[in-house]
Amino acid sequence: MLRRKTSLLAATVLVALPQTVLAGEGGGVFDWVRGDWKLIVGATGMVAPDFEGAKDIMFSVSPIISLGKAGPEARFTSRNDGISFSLYDNGAVRAGLNGQIVLERNSNDYWQLQGLDPVRWGAEIGGFAEVYPTDWLRLRGEVRQGVRSHTGVVADITVDAFKDITDSVRISGGPRMSWASADYFESYYGVNAAESFSSGLSEYDPGGGLKSIGFGGAYDWKATEKLTTSVFAEYSRLMGPAADSSLVKQRGSPNQFTFGLSAAYRFDFSM
Length: 271
What we know:
This protein is mainly beta. The chain has a single domain (about 1-270), classed as Porin, CATH 2.40.160.40. It has helices spanning about 1-5, 20-25, 180-190, 195-200, 240-245, 245-250; strands at about 10-15, 35-50, 55-70, 85-90, 95-100, 120-135, 135-145, 155-165, 170-180, 210-220, 225-240, 255-270. The protein has a 12-stranded mixed beta sheet. The longest helix has 8 residues, at about 180-190. It is elongated, with a radius of gyration of 20 Å.
């Protein structure tokens, strides 16, 4: 049991470089290093499905590590946001580069996956854009290409309404929707003839399409100027090629619930 839990440990690393790096401004290539920096460290504990599409849930803990230059912060951020590097920001519209770390899915860790090919660790790299039509609403889209873990394309759309109850408390929530290409579904939900023979699952050759729809919300409390805590909950319903997979139908569930708590502390320093 412990081996299964530790296999899900992951670090979220955010490195926010200023735009002067791209523009080549300043006296040298590495002048952007000088100035004020912030390091955020913390941890997230959550109860979530064993793997995407699983019926059973487990508790896992993962670290939060965020390093970046001090400066204007995004008006709203969500735990669903990928690692982001803003190239354009006028207050109402923000866009730039985006990525996510993809953890390994080892078929030896869960009996439901035995006989299926493992999904290697890797990344998804692409771009994002977000719009603030009002002071309390954010619409965000991400499109990412899989690297190493899979060769598919994933697109996510999230809508979040947020409100500051007090100077230190914010609540937020809204719908989520995700699409993926056939190559993505093949890696996570496909079952070829050899895998079917080894696993006992029915053969399944998915196409691309809608991956999931759902809703998520969070309660954020800024306990001190540097310490922030958050309670969050997410529900997603697998759709289309994911829900039709023999893995989900025979051994999993299209209903995916996540509950968690996180705490992070910010350290300020200069270089």
